[in-house]
Amino acid sequence: MRLTSVKLAGFKSFVDPTTIAVPGQLVGVVGPNGCGKSNVIDAVRWVLGETSAKQLRGEHMHDVIFNGSAERKPVGRASVELVFDNSLGRVGGAWAQYTEISVKRVLSRDGDSNYYINGQHVRRRDVQDIFLGTGLGPRAYSIIEQGMISRVITSKPEELRVFLEEAAGVSKYRERRRETELRLEDTRENLSRVGDIQAELETQVGHLAQQAEVAGKYNELQTQLALNHNLLTFTRLREADTAKTRYGNEVQKVTVALEAETAKLRENERALEDLRHKHYQETDHLSQLQGNLYAANADVQSLEQEIAFLGENRRRMTVQLDGLATEIGEVERRISEAHGERDRFQSDSERARAAIGERAADVERARAALPAAEEAARTATANVKSAGTEMSAAEQAQGIEESRESHALKILSQLEARKNRLKQENMALVFPEPEKLAGLERERDSLREKVSGLETQQKDAEGRLPALEDERRAAVTTLQEKTREVANLEAALKALESQQAKLDNNSKLADWARQHALDRSERLWQAMHVEAGWDDAVEAALGVRLNAARLSDESNLSSLLRDAPPGNFAVFIERGVPDIASASSHLRPLSSVVTSTRPGVLAYVKEALGNVFILPDGEEGLALAKVLPPGGLLVSKAGHLFGRQGVVFHGPQSELHGVLQRQREIEDLQGRIPAQVRSRAEVDERLKALEIELREGQDNARRVREELQRARQQDHDLEVEYLKLSQSSKQAEARREAIRVELSEIEKQEEGEKLEMSEAQHALQRGSEAIETIVQRLQALEESARDAQSALDTARAGILAAERAHQEAQYTERSATDKAASQGQLAVSLGERLSALGMNKAKVSEELGALEEGNVRERLQGALQVKSERERILADARSGLEHLADELRSLEEGRLSVEQNLNPMRERITELKLKEQEAVTNAEQYATQLQEAGVTREEMAEQIEKRVGSRTMQAEITRLTEEIAALGPVNLAALQELETARDRKGFLDAQATDLFQAVETLEAAIKRIDRETREMLQSTFDIVSANFTEMFPALFGGGQASLKLTGEEILDAGVQVFAQPPGKKNASIQLLSGGEKALTAIALVFSLFKLNPAPFCLLDEVDAPLDDPNTVRFCELVKQMSAQTQFLFITHNKITMELGEQLVGVTMQEPGVSRIVEVDIEAAMEFARKQAA
């Protein structure tokens, strides 16, 4: 797999789409500082999946997007694409079939980052998976940026191990191991959850089994209850059918009587209807007569209104005539005023037209005088400008000569200062003394002996530390185990004590005990001990007395009796009473399994258990209980109580169940915890002693190491000083000869500069005289130009004044003419208004004469006579209508009497029908209930013969309902839930087995990965160490170097570099110079490349700290490695540039924007040869 090109767009300074071709194995990137060369390295690192902005020399990831320049705006996204040649098929997986692979990354300013392989959107992990084990990656050893080559050699051992893993190709195994560990952790969590669910299911199955038993009893009772309900329903169905028949017969009887009364009512209603029809006719006739009267009244009112309207019109027209006369006089006055104003404005217009002619003549005279003044001003200005140009030329020539003189003086001053500095430097040259060099050599020998002794002490001091560290780790492990055991015991004790404290869970009873100071009293179970195995028996026999509170003062008993507790509660008093004799000598009393250190407690227990005896194993309780005295009981280990007449079974339903067993466990834990605490304290003391001893050993080793480092540093300083002194003599002699040559050159430069200054001074004198003459002539010309310009300004002002006066005269003439025309139009308009007012006055006078009232009053008298006649006819009609109304009222009262007799009959029929319908509804309801219950009437008829009646069935239903209620809440789905829970438990058991197998498989896979990784890492380390040992002397021309592991387990151990250049015995890599560190790091990186050559390698100015001989050796090594690896290097070194087959130039002609210039070296050399030929 070979890199063929890098495509950038919007990435840092590469704002325009840019393609960097990488055709060969050795490609150099050159250019000035700050032009964007390192951005190419950052682009490759970024597209390979780098997520840290710090590694890309930024603060935020969006800093890689071009942020604009002085001439360009910021862009919205950045993209980088790497194109690889995969013709050899080194890329595995799904991409192996492609001969060319492109990897692209795009980032937008909204933070959206996308990866693409061959244009297909992929994850970042997919990109990294392609290069796993190839040495390529965002932080792999194949990409070495500025300063990184020195950091590689000074990195921590753990950081160097990453390079070793990448070279060994185990990074993909580490990733798989991490994924396997995550799956193993998930599997263990799933297994833990399955275990929790299994435990929960076991408890749930037990509860569901009890609930299923209750559900079975409930179903049996419900079956009996349903049968009795069906029988009761059938009985009520037959009763409803009988009631329906009885009510139907009664309805028929009442209906016959109702029909007879209804016939009588119909006859009465027909007579009433005929009379009503006659009454309606008379009413209509009356309405017609009344309408005629209303019409006569309307005629009278109309004539009266017409007489009133005529009088109002006469008054209104009289007022209107008076107003018209007044308005006519006002219009005549305004017409006279308009004629006067029109004559005045016509006079003003004639005067303005005369003034316009005079002002136009003034304007023409002023304009005629203007051209001569303008020509005089232009001539004067041109003369001044010409003289000014001549003056500027002279001043410019004078400035040039002044610059020549100033430059010559400056050069002479610099040469003098340089000459003095060289003379002082020549006098200050110092040559070292031979005696001082010999003394330094003796000091170095003494320091070497001291370093050797300190190295021996360091080895001894550090050799004791691993054993102490192992012993300390073992002590820490033991202490953690002891601490864990103590914590577990204390947690168990706390849980038991918490459970014991929850015995009094009745809040009302607890408040009562607190009120009587009994909440903190000692309980009976705390003061006694029970033989193992008899806890249930003692709990069953004592019952509530097991939790009896100790009453310290017997006198308080009377107050307790007066204020009885709100629940079951017991107290006991310690009295030393004699033991109660056993009533049966051959049975063992239950009190014999109870012991106590306090006689009073033992006496109370024996009293409480006086008639309770232990049932021997294998004996039948009821048979043996026959020989018991009255009130005696036998108890088994399970807590079942046998009496002479029955058995009381013991079940763990009380909160006191297990209290004795928990109390024994509490006492056992209270005895074990102090011993464990003492054991933990002993281990803790031993650990502190080991830590003190280990700390002293570490301090001693650190002290020796620091002293050794100081000694090595002193030796290094002496070596540096010796080299400086030995080289300073040769340098001083060479510098003295160079100073002599440089002083000779300075004297020659001084003679030339003095001649140049003399010529400039003569030219300055001549220029000053010429400038003085030009200044005098320029002053005279400027005075003449000012006079001409003043005359021109005066002429232009006269023209403006004449034009303004002419415009004012024209405005006055137009204004007067417009106003005269306006007043004329007003007079015409007012004349028209006067004519219209005269016509209107004549019309109103004519209408006033036409208004007369005589004819209207005659018509009013005729209308009044018609009205009187119609009032008389209407009164006769009303009298006849009242007689008909009396007859109609009499018939209506008879009809109401008949209807009152019908209503009770109808109500009786309705009542009977409702009862009949109720019986029908009940019968249908009961029939529906029987049908829904799935039984027939024939089946119920057979069953009903065996029953006494509905009352007996109702009593049976009540009894069954009470038994069902006594069962309490019933989980009817318990049977199905029990089956489901058992099926689920079986499924979870199978799942748990599968998870156990998965855990074993994953753990085996991790072990296999660790074994393979360990073998590959060890093999890689051995090869890389051998390559490093071989390559280091090749680069340094001698010396020795090696790699060492910092731990025994290679999977976790770091890698430490030891290097000693030729002639040096440095004990630390930190003592090497910058160039030596760079060469050592190059040897290490190339050792990794030699084992696992990456497809390509990026080097960013790694040759910067190297001198020319080391650079040559570096280039030879790179050329050798280029047979297998493609190199893209950034350099400023000409020697390294010569190595490249192609050179890529990076320029920044536009500020902030990088561009590419590519040169093929071989093609360029061929072109040069052709040009030379």
Describe this structure in words.
This is Chromosome partition protein Smc. ATP binds at residues 32-39. Residues 3-1154 form the RecF/RecN/SMC N-terminal domain. Residues 258-320, 405-506, 680-798, 874-901 form a coiled coil. With 1173 residues, this protein is an alpha/beta fold. The chain is 69% helix and 8% strand. The strands form six sheets. It has a six-stranded antiparallel beta sheet with strand order 2-1-4-5-6-7. Helix 4 crosses helix 17 and helix 5 (171-428) runs parallel beside helix 16 (950-966). The chain starts with a strand and ends with a helix. Mean pLDDT is 77; it is low at 580-584.
Any descriptors?
1173 residues; alpha/beta; Rossmann fold; six-stranded antiparallel sheet; six-stranded mixed sheet
Please give a quick description of this structure.
Homodimer. This protein is an alpha/beta fold and 1173 residues long.
